[in-house]
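Run log, item B.
One chain of 118 residues. Sequence copied directly from the ordering sheet:
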Amino acid sequence: MEITYTRVSDYLLLDIMLSEPPDAEPLTKYGMMRKRFLKANHPAHYGKMLVHEELYPHCREVQAQAQIRFDILMEHFACTNPPPEKSVDALAWAAHMTMLNDTADEIVRSELVCSEAV
């Protein structure tokens, strides 16, 4: 393995390349939120995961779990608290669905994305 450096002014910086495949699934909303949470609240663990190339797989796993949980919550909320008929009152329907979406999003963020379990 060849170690390379890049000269920046008077300093030599180590060239670090992650072995992330180019076709890897990109991080979406919940994956990026998890990454930011770890970086802000657990910087040592974030750095360790980044160096060992565990950060992005971890964020993708949280992202997948969060999306599944969000879909389940939205389905449950829509059954227990049905929205008004969209064709009768589109504005009330939109407000109701936004409220359900925000509630499910807050639950997902507190349970999975911003959980202290690292």
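Observations after the first pass:
- The chain is about 60% helix and 5% strand.
- Residues 5 and 14 are 5 Å apart (CA to CA).
Flagged for discussion on Thursday.
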